[in-house]
Amino acid sequence: MKLIDPSSSSGATSTPSPATMKIVSPATTCWLASAAASTTKPLTSTTAILSVGSDQHYQLRPFDLDQDTHALQDICKDVYGGRDYLPQTAIKYARDPHACFLALAPLAFDNETRVERDPTRQGPIVAVANAQQHVLPNIAWLEAVRTCPTQRGKGLARILTQQLMDISRSQFDCHNVYTCTVDSNVAMKKIFAKVGMTHLGNIHQVKFDRLMELPGWASGNNKNDEDADVRPQPLLQALQLESRVTSHAKQMEWVPVTSMEELHAVLHQIRTEGGMGYLPALYKVLSTPKTVEAIQVGLVWKLRTTDTPRSAVIAFSRDDQIQSLESKWVCSIAATTCVAVESALWHACGADPDGDAEDSIFSSLATATQKDPSSCEECISLPATFTISVDGAVPVHRESSSKLCQGIPFVDAQDACVLYGTTN
After folding, report:
1. Is the pTM here over 0.85, yes or no?
2. Residues facing 303 on adjacent strands
3. pLDDT digits over 204-216, tens only?
């Protein structure tokens, strides 16, 4: 592995319902912000009464931390095997001026007068969803769509999805909305199709259950007693995959990416080669703000194309939604070939015994966390413990895949992360 200095030479399971939905009465105005704007701006209403069918009525409103937290915990209790990130991140969504975190609550409603019979009789929320605005230029990100198990099949997830898409376009000037789900979630994919989204690509994720089994990798609440004082090994060493890295991958050279313009050029080339053209992240694409931050602290590299006919980019970022692993670092790999993934991991894990420690990601990540790698053992191990997200264009599940890719515990193809979005 070599680094070159640039001066010397990237849980909703509700099924769509034929029942009609109509906005009956708009209500209050809330303040939200566009990530592309330097100041917060007032927007039109995000609170309304929705009629689903002839006798079911819901209030669409911003999520209320004081009022809705307990109900949200009930909604999420069985999601991801009881390890749903949403109850912990709800406070961030609710307070983020760049997000629109909405909830649906059932109402006691008078069909004749078209008003609430008693506002105090609003029931606990039964569905939520969030839209993060301008995650990418003029693109909003739909996430955290959740429906109470007893309320599924009524079209509530579709209603929330459509409402957030409309708000993103009309109030945030986001021309398109992206989101993702797992390939086996047929119900959610049907919802995406109904609201005009199409399949844009796949993202390979690693099985967290398998990473949690690696000594020292699990977070404090998930550690085994015998792992309490174990220092985690780098990813390739922990999985015992170092010997599978080819000599070609080891010799590839990586150049730091120093600007968004430079990154966009490489990602465009990756798209022409069959990739998504985005930096994959943990069940999403890496946002522009996080990408800019990573570039500023030296955590984005591109593969030198003289070594290979295909382009590739790696980037490191932190994801606070990670609850089960000790480290919250994610290595994003935008590429279309297995050899690029091999080289990326060889580079990122600092696996070259003859390499210069100062020319590795260890030093760069220590800088990003404002720690001195020469005096802090904790931060030296920090870069080793990361999950990876890989562009779905890399053929990791084929029999012809490289031996290293075959050894990485990627999520099975039927549960692959699938990216959907509008393309207006």
Report:
1. no
2. 254
3. 999 999 999 999 8
